[in-house]
Prior knowledge:
Layout: E1 3-9, H1 17-20, H2 28-43, E2 48-53, E3 63-66, E4 70-73, E5 86-89, H3 93-103, E6 109-112, E7 116-117, H4 119-128, E8 136-141, H5 147-163, E9 168-173, H6 190-204, H7 208-213, H8 216-222, H9 227-236, E10 243-250, E11 257-263
Parallel strand pairs: 1-9, 2-8, 2-9, 3-6, 4-7, 5-8
Antiparallel strand pairs: 1-11, 3-8, 4-5, 10-11
Amino acid sequence: xxxxxxxxxxxxxxxxxxxxxxxxxxxxxxxxxxxxxxxxxxxxxxxxxxxxxxxxxxxxxxxxxxxxxxxxxxxxxxxxxxxxxxxxxxxxxxxxxxxxxxxxxxxxxxxxxxxxxxxxxxxxxxxxxxxxxxxxxxxxxxxxxxxxxxxxxxxxxxxxxxxxxxxxxxxxxxxxxxxxxxxxxxxxxxxxxxxxxxxxxxxxxxxxxxxxxxxxxxxxxxxxxxxxxxxxxxxxxxxxxxxxxxxxxxxxxxxxxxxxxxxx
Length: 264
């Protein structure tokens, strides 16, 4: 089996030492959880990391696969000019995925070449690749399409991942609700906590169908940024046996940070 690892990682920029500085202590549980995730990922010996980010460039009607040969971190928007990460891109898998999409009349995939990585990609990789200097990455972007399309896109990716002769990890980067307290980035809304609770319940019970029936009002009111990344991941995990392990969930800044491993 070519899928060797699957996980969810939050991406608060405060996890980057040059940005968070002393404030990292306020999300210590999340930091410890991602460091544990890094240990698990290292033991799975991945050759490629497919990472799904909600903050990379998105198309309303298509998913994108980034096949840049070289990647560089870009955290300038957070005032960080000192954290400089570089990665080698995976250039074969994007073409096999897109080729398969045409065979299945799924024409909603485009290839892009963007060497600068957004924080939704950089923050998880900062921790997860510390002991994987030679791993290649494939950044994947979600789209403006509906939930069912995201799930189907993940399943299409899974088909090619399973056919690959490489050891592949898939990371869904995303935060949960941004309105869990009065001082949260989006203010407070009662549906924020409901969203976070339901998402975790669906993962625990392996209820992927529940994700598709989650009310739009709850999703929209939660002002989340991980839901569609999670749907893609669950598409990848369709018909795959796994054990869900939540390593951490906390919301010290009114934003839900979930770190979880879908143990294969």
